[in-house]
Structures are given as C-alpha cells and as structure tokens.
Specification:
Number of strands: 19
Strand order of the largest sheet: 13-12-9-10-11-14-18-16
Helix content: 25-40%
Largest sheet: 8 strands, antiparallel
Shape: globular
Strand content: 25-35%
Oligomer: single chain
Structural class: alpha+beta
Length: 412
C-alpha cells in the first residue's frame, strides 16, 4: 500500500488526510505541534517544523528508511512548497522543481520572472526604507498594496495611498517578512478571482474559480482581509479560457509538469485579460480545494491531486464538472474582547444549506481586531438554489454564530 506524506497537519488539511485514507493510501504527517488534529487520524506522525526544510528532509529520509516507504508528498493549506519539493527530491519521488517552489515563495522573484516572460502583472517595486516608499507614493494619487516579500495568510498586506500612515504600514509589512524585505505593487481596482488548477503532463485543468469577496475592505483598512467568496465565478467563457491559458503558461515557465497551481487573479474593468497578483504551488487553504470546488463542480480535486503527487495517472474524464452548484463561503468577524460563551455549532451545522461550520475561538480566548486572515474567528460554507440563496444561507449561519458568541469587553 502506497504512503503519502502530508507536510502540515492543521485543521484545513484534515479532510485531505481522511480522503487519502479512504481511497486506500497510508498517511504520514509532519507538524511541529504534537497535538495537531491530523496526528489523530494519520497512520504515522513526525514532529518537525514544516518550515524547517533540512529537518523535514532528514526526518522523512529516516522514516522512509526505517518505518515505511514514502511514495508521495503534498501540502494542503500550508505554505511550505520548499519543504515539499525538497523532500520529494531527496527521496526521488514525484514533485515540482525546487526552483519552482523557491520562485513561488518569493514574491519579488516571482514578479521578476513573470515580467521577463510577458505575464500580465501589476506594476511592482521592492522598497528598502520608509523614505523609498514616501518617494514613490508622493509622486501620484494612485493606490498601492504594500506587502512582505515572503510572508503568507495576508499578514502585513495593506492597501495604501498618499493619505495613509506610510511609516506604520512599512513597519507592519517589514515585521512580517522573515527576510526583512518589503515590496509595493499597484492596486488594481477590479473583480478578483481565486483559481485552483491541476497540472498533469504539462497541461492545466483549472477546476476551481471563485469570486473573492472584499466587501469589508474599508472596514478593516488598511489591512486587506478577504471575507470568503462565491462559486461559480462571474466570468465569461473568454475570461475562463484566458485564465486556463495563463496558468498553463506559468506551469511551463516554472517547469511544473505535474502538480497544482493556486492563483490570485484580478481583471481590469471590462477586460478579458487576467492580471496575475501571485501564484502558489500548493493546495489552497480556506477549504477551497477540499470543500468548495467539489461542492461546486462535483470534481474530486484533492483526490486527483493526491494521485498526481504519488506519480499515478488520473482519469481526465473525472476532471469534467458534473455539477454547477452555487457555493458561498463567509467568515465570522467577532468583536474584540474575551470569549465567555460559544455557540452550539451542531445546531448551526443543521441550518439550511450549511456544508461546513467551523468556530476558531474558544472560551477564554482573547479576540483582537483582525489584521490578517488568521484573525478571522470562524468560517461557513453554504450551498443554495442560486447565488443569492447560497449567500443568504451563509450569512444566516454567520449571524447565528455572532448572536451566540458572547464576548466580554476588556476594561481600558
């Protein structure tokens, strides 16, 4: 029986671990947290930081030699492509090139390579000081995004202009960069799309396309925090085709013959040309690949990604959508304070259309105003007869969570 190694054992990876076991594979999980949820369900557990590339290599080689042969390696909702690619190479098993993983982990390197290869991207520049930032912003009235070159989960990502507290924004972005590198790029005002594609034998199969929801952008400004999304995306056939073409071109640039590519994409108003904000060479978080795509399309996206990671062939017929259900994801943004009572999540799971209901806080937890995606307090995924119905089902569940989440305000 083949074994697949998951690097990252958080809650969002659990559905994939369970799926791998259900379709007949052994599983092992690497995570630094000995109490991580996936350790309770995997066949084998390895304690190591998922960001410690050398540690992951050493322990996976030891496991492979002494315990069980590893046939494939993958990550779900963990931004650790370097660890995944390096373990794959060290064990001589399927995986993306290490160079591709490095490029997708460094936003400046990624943008440089995309620009060289004529991929449509926003204007961008690395900045090395607050003074650098001030010089650029003071020249015009444009809006920009400032971000760490090498962080994740929207940490340190902010929308700025000449009226912003630029010094504070620069320090915030710098603080979240492990390498202490910061960049800015032009903010493109237009519909944003999340994409998720399987790459098999050099060809792209973009199964997941979602409209990203930024209706709370001003509320949490300058921080850029997404409040879920809606499937199917509001795209015409030309836009969908152009996304497919650009993802396939990126796969070729990165020399990814088999793997996955997650895209953050924006369209200018009335344009059919996708502008690439960035890509990731891993399976997405936020239950996009594990829940939303299958609910929307009927395609077992993660199951096929696991097979690709194991070097197995996939049935292309199984990548054809059999459903076109409306799916809505929304997040719980709780008020600040100390949690004193939590809602009955079992009751919320039974509400109309609800397919996933997760609370991310517990009694005694302190809630601060969110500055990045990890600061969201819960998540709902709902379906409906149409888009509005799915949205209403999700929003009703969020309201029920808020109503029954009791927060004690801290004395100032």
């Amino acid at each position: 029986m083949k074994l697949i190694l998951f690097i990252g054992g958080g809650d969002e990876a659990l559905p994939a671990v369970k799926l791998a076991k259900s379709i007949g594979f052994k599983t092992a999980v690497i995570d630094l947290d000995p109490s991580c949820i996936c350790f309770k369900y995997s066949d084998f557990n390895i304690i190591c930081s998922t960001y410690d590339v050398n540690g992951c290599i050493k322990l996976s080689q030891q496991f492979n030699d002494e315990t069980y042969k590893i046939s494939g390696v993958i990550s779900v909702a963990s931004d650790v492509p370097n660890s995944v690619a390096s373990v794959a190479k060290s064990l001589n098993i399927p995986g993306i090139p290490i160079k591709a993983a490095l490029i997708s982990s460094d936003k400046m390197l990624m943008k440089d390579i995309f620009k060289k290869n004529n991929i449509e991207i926003p204007w961008y520049k690395e900045i090395f000081s607050y003074e650098d930032l001030l010089k650029i912003i003071s020249k015009n009235n444009k809006q920009y995004v400032i971000k760490p070159v090498d962080s994740r989960g929207s940490r340190g990502v902010q929308k700025i202009d000449s009226n912003s507290n630029l010094k504070l924004s620069y320090e915030e972005a710098l603080n979240y960069s492990p390498s202490k590198r910061v960049m800015i790029e032009e903010f493109i005002s237009g519909p944003q799309i999340s994409s998720e594609s399987l790459i098999f034998k050099g060809k792209s199969y973009t199964i997941g396309l979602s409209d990203r929801n930024y209706e709370l952008l001003e509320k949490y400004a300058p921080n850029i925090i997404e409040d879920g999304g809606d499937l199917p995306a509001s795209l015409d056939k030309e836009q969908v085709s152009n996304i497919e073409k650009i993802i396939e071109k990126i796969a070729k640039i990165l020399k990814i013959n088999n793997g996955v590519i997650k895209g953050d994409i924006v369209f200018n108003k009335d344009s059919s040309t996708p502008i690439i904000i960035e890509v990731a060479t891993r399976l997405s978080g936020g239950y996009f690949c594990t829940h939303e795509i299958p609910l929307n399309t009927g395609v077992d996206f993660v199951g096929n990604a696991i097979k690709i990671a194991l070097g197995e062939n996939i049935n292309l017929n199984e990548l054809e959508p059999t459903e076109k259900n409306c799916v809505c994801q929304r997040y719980l943004f709780a008020k600040e304070g100390i949690v004193t009572k939590i809602p009955n999540m079992k009751k919320i799971e039974l509400m109309p259309g609800i397919k996933l209901a997760k609370l991310r806080v517990d009694i005694g937890d302190k809630i601060d105003s969110p500055k990045s995606h990890p600061g969201r307090s819960g998540v709902i995924i709902a379906v409906g007869e149409n888009r509005v119905d799915a949205q209403n089902n999700a929003k009703n569940a969020i309201l029920e969570m808020k109503k029954n989440l009791i927060i004690k305000q801290e004395l100032k």
